[in-house]
Recover the amino acids of this structure.
């Protein structure tokens, strides 16, 4: 196990290097710069600003400098938000995205898993057709439609929940963004769990368990549940990253101070360091959660050997 983890972690270094290199080259190849504006600066002022942020250096030297800072965990200063580092912006926005994303993930797994397994156990009945039709609708509806509808119903009409803003530790401010973000994933999980459960229920070892006279509930929980999780684990790797890093639509509609809004604003304003920092963070999270997914495979299916 230790050798496997070490090999995977060492293999992540060149992957992150490729991600950082491609992002760096693409950002600097785009027209415009971080300090270009409609109102031109005096040449002396612009040269002083570029010298302060080392933008007057050759591109290869900027690249080497960035990699050196990145190796020390320094993502650099933000060009748009003066006096604030990229580390500070991510430290401020990531906890908000993590809270909303992990809450949405918990809702999606609990609701989608229960719906999918129940539909598989009642295949060909209303308990199967109705939830799966609702799941198709949930997949088809985009978040920018779901989020305003939730606000219109629960905030404007019923006055049960706030329409937006963010208060740390407040379940009332967390519920609507988490539900809006969770609904499409709930539909994916429900359909995936239904298909996986049907496949497992018709497996030879399940017929053997039934032939031994074991109770259906015991067969489901002890023998069928773990094998049904295998397709879900492969889906959850990138899904968790998408949920944790947040959705720009959800952040915009509900006014959340997450890193998604910073990322879009930084890309539009050529804030190189902020875009690079969030891109590298996204790559690190994908590598981490894919590694955790591989470890979960070994727990779910003993036939998988990490060596």
């Amino acid at each position: 196990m230790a050798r496997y983890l070490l090999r995977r972690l060492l293999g992540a270094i060149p992957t992150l290097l490729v991600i950082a290199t491609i992002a760096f080259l693409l950002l600097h190849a785009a027209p415009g710069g971080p300090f270009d504006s409609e109102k031109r600066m005096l040449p002396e002022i612009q040269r002083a600003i570029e010298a302060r942020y080392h933008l007057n250096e050759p591109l290869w030297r900027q690249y080497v400098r960035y990699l050196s800072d990145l190796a020390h965990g320094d993502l650099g200063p933000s060009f748009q938000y003066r006096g604030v580092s990229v580390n500070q912006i991510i430290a401020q926005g990531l906890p908000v995205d993590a809270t909303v994303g992990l809450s949405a993930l918990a809702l999606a797994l609990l609701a989608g898993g229960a719906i999918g397994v129940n539909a598989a156990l009642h295949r060909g009945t209303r308990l199967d057709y109705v939830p799966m039709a609702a799941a198709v609708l949930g997949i088809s509806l985009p978040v920018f439609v779901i989020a305003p509808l939730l606000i219109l119903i629960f905030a404007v009409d019923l006055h049960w929940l706030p329409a937006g803003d963010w208060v740390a530790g407040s379940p009332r401010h967390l519920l609507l963004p988490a539900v809006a973000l969770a609904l499409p994933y709930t539909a994916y999980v429900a359909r995936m769990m239904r298909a996986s459960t049907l496949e497992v229920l018709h497996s030879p070892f399940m017929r053997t368990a039934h032939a031994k006279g074991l109770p259906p509930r015991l067969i489901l929980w002890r023998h069928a549940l773990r094998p049904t999780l295998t397709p879900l684990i492969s889906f959850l790797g990138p899904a968790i990253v998408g949920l944790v890093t947040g959705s720009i639509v959800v952040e915009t509609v509900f006014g959340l101070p997450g890193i998604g809004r910073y990322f879009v604003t930084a890309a539009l304003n050529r804030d190189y360091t902020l875009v690079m920092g969030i891109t590298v963070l996204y790559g690190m999270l994908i590598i981490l959660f894919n590694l955790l997914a591989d470890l979960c495979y070994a727990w779910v299916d003993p036939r998988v050997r990490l060596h």
User: Anything to note?
Assistant: DSSP finds 13 helices and no strands in the chain. The mean pLDDT is 83. The domain at 96-262+282-300 is CATH 1.10.3720.10 (MetI-like fold). The longest helix spans residues 86-121.
